Amino acid sequence: MLATMSFRPPPTSACWQHRTARSGFEVAYFEAVPDGLRVEGTTAAIEDAEAWVVTYVIQLDTAWATRSARVTARTVAGWRETFLESDGSGHWLVDGTAAPHLDGCMDVDLESSAMTNALPVHRMNLRIGEAADAPAAYVRALGLAAERLEQVYRRIADRDARQRYEYTAPAFGFTSRLHYDDSGLVTDYPGIAARAGLPDQHLDRGRGQRRAGHHLDALPIPGGLVGPRSVQRGRGNNCSLHRSLARDAVSGWLCSMSTCRDSPDYPLPLSHNLTLRIQQWGDLP
Known about the structure:
The chain is mainly beta. The termini are far apart.
């Protein structure tokens, strides 16, 4: 049995929409295995005028400590891959070479991922008011360098029976308030990402938009909203499918990333046009 502690077991899949810092989507799939949990995911995004895709396979033990992580990235520079291994006691190998700068880290944290913020929260099982250091093996989206990142998680009062944490990364001078669902996955990471397809997502006022709706009828993107109705009306029909579709198990919708050719409907900064199309699973050819 997985050590989910105060959380329910994770869903079979989850999807996040990146916000503010970058534009894009992340999709992750969760599979219980005899010795823990296997997580496979992909993030496709554009940030600072550079597009990239990061794919990962993370193996967790029954206490949610990272035992291995294979991370692959595609950028304009080509393909890269790195493989991290941990003995579960805070000692790491990176591509087969000892990495003493990661000593004491129990989690992998991918710069490209909102999913990996679930790992220390599950593993530490903090009570309200408690705080703990959670240094992580931090893998950059570009270049896949594995760095040590000092982090602190402090659990604050729950809201609507869901856990919340104050998160701090001193090296970046960064703090945020993270919201989690009852399976311990981030629902709101202000300025970074928000879960897509949740039936009713409540965000802190001043920390992000409040998005509701059982079927995720529309998603906010620069330039307007796009959803099933806009697709049916033909908006964005000049878009060619660029990235593979990913099914959001919560809502039953498919989220896809498309690159548009000279589309005036969805302008993104720096002349990059990106739309988010949503189609029903049953409508796909």
